[in-house]
Amino acid sequence: MPDGNAYFAECQDMLVLKLVGVMRAGPQSALCRFTEGYLKKKNYRSLLVDMSQTSYIDSTYLGTLAAIAKEFKGKGGRNCSCILANETAMEAIELISLDVLFTVVPTDPIDSNNLSEMVPEALGDSAALRTVLDAHRTLSEIAPKNELMFRNVIEVCESQLGEHG
Q1: Which DSSP state fits 100?
Q2: Which positions ≥6 away from 68 have C-beta within 8 Å?
Q3: Which residue among 48, 67, 131, 149 has the highest number of C-beta atoms inside a 10 angstrom radius?
Q4: Which CB contacts under 8 angstroms, 24+ apart, belong to 101-108?
């Protein structure tokens, strides 16, 4: 499966993210670096994530989105919304309780031509593993059922990084 693309734009005090295709976090994940840099530079009032053209998204990527939403709300952001492709996508969001952080909005997809592409930056193995660990810890924090669902992932990552919960 080829990787997808992530795009972003600023619209007044709103940050717009658009995820297109197969979104897998890993050594080339643009979203991981984006959260460490760009998002921390400015306070936005609204965050909109358009996943209407996302064909697949892994749990690490979802956990990274959850971390973005938590940080965003922690900095006084008011509205975290997402656009989904279909009912199956909604079921996936509800399964891991991302609907606690994001409001699903029925709106038209955002045109990628008006957005800037996030440039992937290679992460070393340790940084990539840290990204996986942090994402799954975030998912575990937002809902108790996620803790059980992702316990093995967290334990393996902690073991490989030499950490213990």
Answers
A1: G
A2: 31, 35, 39, 47
A3: 131
A4: 101/66, 101/69, 101/70, 101/73, 101/142, 102/49, 102/65, 102/69, 103/79, 105/48, 105/81, 107/83
Tokens 């938590």 -> residue: 70
> Which H or E run includes 158?
helix 144-161
29 CB burial (10 A radius; 0-12, 13-18, 19+): buried
**Single pTM value for the model:** 0.80
| Pair 22, 1: CB distance under 8 Å | yes
Quote the tokens at residue 139: 């998912």
The per-residue pLDDT string of the chain (165 residues; one tens digit each, 9 = 90 and over) reads 557 888 888 887 888 889 888 888 765 466 767 766 666 777 778 888 999 888 888 888 899 889 888 888 877 767 889 988 888 788 888 989 999 999 888 777 677 677 887 776 777 788 888 889 999 999 999 999 999 999 999 999 999 998 865
**53 token code pair:** 């053209």
Query: What backbone torsions phi and psi does residue 10 show, to the nearest 5 degrees?
Result: -105, 130
